[in-house]
């Protein structure tokens, strides 16, 4: 009768596995044996060191307050009184000088400085209307005649046929002289400049009067420019 084995109980199939397990175990034991070290127990004595801080003695020098030396002794001053007879001649005699004259001279030499105050000049009033009117020498007819003979027609005004009246204002001073002539209205062409020139060259007027006194009077004068 043939004996039959259970395939699970058959160990022949697991030989290879057991062999591998044995080899791995042997290799592990060998590696452990090579890496094994034997440490000698050494006794290490640790001696505790005590640190001693040595503190150096610090010497602080203090300067003693020495009192100042005493002042030198001053020699005693002794006053000797010498008795002199009335008939004795004194060589060193103090004299009294009379300074009265010198003081008076010094006072005379000091002269006070007088500061002169500047007097502001107040411009006198200029009148336009007065009790006694001002007058050109010979009257108004003489004034027109003077203007007609004195005025020279400007060339520029002739070339441009400029005609008309130039109004000039000026002040007749208390002595009859002419001051501050200026043009109030001009027509151009040099007529205004010519009118000013003629007014400045006028002779002195008879000044106007207010309450019997000569005063400054302002006068407006028309100067005609006509081409013939």
Q: How much of the residues is beta strand, in percent?
A: 5-15%
Shape: elongated
Order of helices and strands: HHEHHEEHEEE
Report Rg: 72 Å
SS class: alpha+beta
- CATH class call of the domain at 126-225: Alpha Beta
- Largest sheet properties: 4 strands, mixed
CATH-defined topology of the domain at 126-225: TolA/TonB C-terminal domain
Helix count equals: 5
Separation of the first and last Cα atoms: 187 Å
How many strands appear in the DSSP assignment?
6
CATH architecture of the domain at 126-225: 2-Layer Sandwich
Strand order of the largest sheet: 1-6-2-3
Work out the oligomeric state of the chains in this entry. single chain
Residues in helices, as a percent range: 25-40%
Provide the low-confidence segments as ranges.
Answer: 42-64, 92-97
- Overall residue-averaged pLDDT value: 75
